[in-house]
Design goal:
The chain is mainly α. 54% of the residues lie in helices and 5% in strands. The protein has two domains: 1-115, no CATH class; 148-242. The protein has ten helices and five strands. The strands form two sheets. The chain has a three-stranded antiparallel beta sheet. Helix 1 runs antiparallel to helix 2 (28-44), helix 1 (7-22) packs parallel to helix 3 and helix 3 (61-77) runs antiparallel to helix 4 (81-100). The N and C termini lie far apart (42 Å).
């Protein structure tokens, strides 16, 4: 575990710094920390990492694109040469990722050497790294709907030729990501339906787990799962403003 490297964490950190900056909550030390995270992305984005799902080290597409999200969002709140430097770095990462990680169908694929679709690839558009109307965004959404959706629940990716539910449960995080994607595209009815479907997969205390067994209607995995509840609250808040 000590040797694990998750590049995407640096991008997520920048997203948090950017959110704080928009609310004028970053002091000098916080900006220094943000600059260090951005510099780390600049130094290491070409390296294989373990990715959001903590798998073997590969050139994961999601990791690069989430760093793009963080860099763009932070640059939008900054002044001076750093803003231009972060934007240029984001552009370079997108260009290289698009060169090596676009599926022949036009969607993002999991990694340079893995053509499968991954529901985590909905996140870059939701987080502002890739335009919502970008053809790659739309093609990725269509692939997730076609290949990873079962009864309104979303799986991370297809492991092998087995039915989705035989490999693992649907991932609650991915279900709420789909809802946020629909909301971002103005498909409000679908956003609400996806949100309610996944929200209802909680247990009696109202807590959500990492996975949900669609066939057995049973909770699986860690309980409670922090990032699932975080995106649940975000999704509810955004829908509440519609």
């Amino acid at each position: 575990m000590n040797a694990q490297f998750q590049l995407d964490v640096l991008g997520e950190a920048l997203l948090l710094f950017a959110a704080a900056a928009r609310r004028d909550r970053l002091d000098h030390d916080h900006w220094k920390a943000a600059e260090m995270a951005a510099d780390a992305i600049g130094a290491r984005w070409t390296e294989p990492d373990n990715g959001i799902w903590e798998l073997d080290r590969r050139w994961w597409t999601h990791s690069r694109l989430i760093c793009v999200c963080g860099l763009r969002q932070l640059a939008a709140t900054a002044s001076g040469p750093e803003a231009g430097r972060w934007t240029s770095l984001a552009d370079a990462i997108v260009a290289e990722t698009a060169r090596t990680c676009i599926h022949p169908s036009g969607r993002w694929q999991r990694a340079r050497d893995d053509e499968r679709v991954d529901a985590a690839l909905l996140a870059p558009a939701v987080r502002g790294g890739i335009p919502v109307d970008d053809p790659r965004t739309l093609a990725t959404l269509e692939a997730v709907e076609a290949e990873l959706c079962q009864e309104g629940y979303i799986y991370r990716y297809r492991h092998d030729a087995r039915p989705l539910q035989d490999a693992e449960g649907a991932f609650s995080l991915c279900g709420f990501l789909l809802s946020l994607t629909y909301l971002q595209q103005g498909r409000i009815d679908r956003a609400i339906a996806s949100f309610e479907r996944n929200r209802a997969s909680c247990g009696p205390p109202g807590l959500l787990t990492e996975e949900f067994d669609v066939g057995e209607r049973q909770l699986r995995g860690n309980l409670p799962q922090a990032f699932v509840h975080g995106v649940l609250l975000e999704c509810a808040a955004r829908l509440g403003h519609e």
